[in-house]
Specification:
This protein is mainly alpha-helical and 91 residues long. Helix content is 49%, strand content 7%. The longest helix is centred in the middle third of the chain and has 13 residues.
Length: 91
């Protein structure tokens, strides 16, 4: 039986963004796939919903706000507050 990851999906997303590199939902999904082998709920659309929720509370922000109008290949980074919150929760 597979054990579930000890961190939430949103915390894993934040941990992935700690390096400061902008990433799309697809890039994040691909990076998280190893944490959730065989999970069908981990799709790009689900990751995008997590990112939108994290954005709503100020943890992540768009790397290029002009992308918001195009709604294609949005890239996300941690906000300064988000970085502090993720680091605190990883301790």
């Amino acid at each position: 039986m597979n054990r579930p990851p000890s961190r939430t999906v949103r915390l894993n997303i934040g941990a992935m963004l700690l390096d400061g590199l902008p990433r799309t939902a697809e890039e994040i999904r691909s990076g998280l796939a190893g944490f959730y082998p065989g999970e069908r709920h981990l799709c790009t659309e689900a990751v995008e919903l997590h990112l939108q929720a994290l954005r709503a509370v100020g943890v992540v922000m768009l790397a290029n706000p002009a992308d918001d109008e195009a709604r294609q290949d949005l890239t996300y980074v941690l906000s300064a507050d988000g970085k502090a919150r993720v680091q605190r929760n990883l301790e």
